[in-house]
């Protein structure tokens, strides 16, 4: 018998292992969107990193490329006045468009004339440019220079020459420049006159000077008129924008946006300055009148405010109407609370009468415990406990009186205990009733105070309204004068008799070159393309089972169900959890698996179920003990056998010893009755693996094993066997052949897709047509939903396996959210 089974086992091993040349089933064709989304979610941090690198490259390009900014404004020329001022003659209504275009062309030339340039040089001080040298680029320090240079011209020999300033400390610096091909350098102090061949210079500090300036490199250039004119001609653009509307566009390009804005605004201001001076005198007279009326109104308003403030201080109330509403609401709320207190007093009175009644002992129709739920908001946690104890002692006395006479010791002891508890309950009820009576008295006193206050409020409200009416009138008048002042000021500020600035110049926020949006778009597109490539590579290299769809496509075995992840507690080893959380998602999922098992073995009252996996760590022991517990909860007698004698875990799941078990039964050291261990579930027992033998495979082939199964069949409805992983050892293959329902465990995000080919080999080569699979430790993204009859309540976080502790903080939770 043993020899024949050894031959069968060797045949099974050869069939299970197979040869490398044996044809294997290919994975299902098509794109797995579920797996792709999972890979994309896990790759999201890397995609973000690649996008960040692309944007960083764009930023570096923009950082080391000098940007060019453009600031512009739009002017509208007034035909009736500008013609006479600028000497263009009279422009009638019937003039042709060409004549208007010629007039605007004259305006363009006027704006670019030396008249404008001289005013720009005088007001903006374009003659001296200050620069700071950087590692790669240099920038002009327009209006933010840490020092200024005043100069007196000696001759034209050093115009447009570079003067280098190197600060030694806050008061000393060296000035270097090139003269006749040789560098001249000398040390000077701040404010000291400096004699050079072309200038007498004086260097002074500005408000932007700081200790950090000492470490910088600076230089300045003194420009002559030709250089300034050339600079303005090159960068200033004046063009006719709309001949029909008589509008001109003025724009200026420069590396410094503020400088470009200032130049454009100064060009606009040249025409406006004289007319504005005349308008200012008229505006000043009007504003003086408005200010005088406004001062009078503010004085009267201040008096009204003082009267209202005095009323508020005297009556300690700013909003009498609101206070009236508040007091009325408070009285109503107090009445509700008072009724609740009266109900509590009534309840306590009834309880005292019930407890004091000596006739209740022995009556089954009197149950003091019925009043316990109503005492939940009393604030006394001891009272419900004593009432429950009193009720329990009554019931116990009733039961004893059915079996003993009242004169027996057992009855007298219980009567004494009941009397003591009764006395304690009476005292506690009286104490609570006294407290409630005091609260009612205090509430009545507060109600009287509120009602007295309520009677005085209408008179205060009438007085407050009388003071508020003149205050509101003066407030409206003051506001109207202030609005008139602002409106007049705005109107005068926008009035220009000769031309209007339709669009004033502003500091450009973005350069015209390089185009930042385009550069960043290229960097972003590059990062996205690399991120998509990374997702594609990781998807193609993905080799673990992540969802039920992959399990169904790559395996021909029937899927019994899906077990979600479990993170109620941290477990180093598999544990029985369904008895502690019978309504949890994992319990519901295993109940669904039990139902599917009933359909598969509906014709058999006695069943042998084996549970195995490919390698250790896929959760076969966890599934075995919890599925056995769920089956046992349906009033079936279940016994669990741990046949993983090399690495027993069933005893750990039940927190039991492993000193004897299957190994000692098979060597006839103990009987199976001696090795049976009970669990908290009455209909669930188990037999641990016992001490690890040197020959587990030979013990399984022992005829004693079949005898053991036969004995267990006579006493139990379901025999569940936790077998060794078939991918590591072959002990479980013969057991699977004996089983009515062999179950193969696949762990999501842990089991390799290649393991599914082993399932197909077992079915194809060994005829395991009843082989079923369970997807264990499945996360929400790895499951289809409710359409398969299994897997309730997805989303339990990390599983029962040994994993890192839950991440803390926003970054940790975000990382867990992305990776889950």
UniProtKB/TrEMBL annotation:
Residues 607-762 form the AAA domain. This is non-specific protein-tyrosine kinase. The keyword Membrane applies. Keywords: ATP-binding, Coiled coil, Kinase, Membrane, Nucleotide-binding, Transferase, Transmembrane, Transmembrane helix, Tyrosine-protein kinase. The keyword Transport does not apply. Its EC number is 2.7.10.2. The lineage of its organism: Bacteria, Pseudomonadati, Bacteroidota, Cytophagia, Cytophagales. Pfam families: AAA_31. One of its GO terms (cellular component) is plasma membrane. InterPro entries: AAA_dom, Bact_polysacc_biosynth/exp, P-loop_NTPase, Wzc-like_C. The chain crosses the membrane at residues 43-62, 517-541. Gene3D superfamilies: P-loop containing nucleotide triphosphate hydrolases. Residues 294-351 form a coiled coil. PANTHER family: FERRIC ENTEROBACTIN TRANSPORT PROTEIN FEPE, TYROSINE-PROTEIN KINASE. GO terms for molecular function: ATP binding; identical protein binding; non-membrane spanning protein tyrosine kinase activity. It comes from the Bacteria. Belongs to the CpsD/CapB family. It catalyses: L-tyrosyl-[protein] + ATP = O-phospho-L-tyrosyl-[protein] + ADP + H(+).
